[in-house]
Amino acid sequence: xxxxxxxxxxxxxxxxxxxxxxxxxxxxxxxxxxxxxxxxxxxxxxxxxxxxxxxxxxxxxxxxxxxxxxxxxxxxxxxxxxxxxxxxxxxxxxxxxxxxxxxxxxxxxxxxxxxxxxxxxxxxxxxxxxxxx
Length: 133
Ligand code: THU
Description:
The protein is an alpha+beta fold. It has helices at about 5-15, 55-65, 90-100, 120-125, and strands at about 30-35, 40-45, 75-80, 100-110, 115-120. Helix 3 links the parallel strand 3 (about 75-80) and strand 4 (about 100-110).
């Protein structure tokens, strides 16, 4: 357990939640990626009638980061309309890992503003990295 998230951040996550397109699961998720230079990129989950085509909030936020030229994730915040804390799915852990700075923090923010943090290394030990040469 870590101290409550910065209230402005918890607010920003909560304000994104209604934008999620989640007519199939009803689970609204928001994510904010923070880069080393302090920039923030937002995302929500975008479901599809062809279920596997759905995109997680974390993946949306990472796409926004990459689109805007961001390279490295220092921290990623996630929130949802479920009770308690949620944690990125396995696929999103690998997507975060791809861009994570060492020690990159994944911060789950509950509806009451409470926060819990794990590093990406804790959430994805031995993630896949393609080293060539
Ligand atoms: N979802 C996310 O967006 N992020 C997560 O970390 C876990 C799950 C989405 C996928 C789907 O749209 C809905 O939540 C229910 O699984």
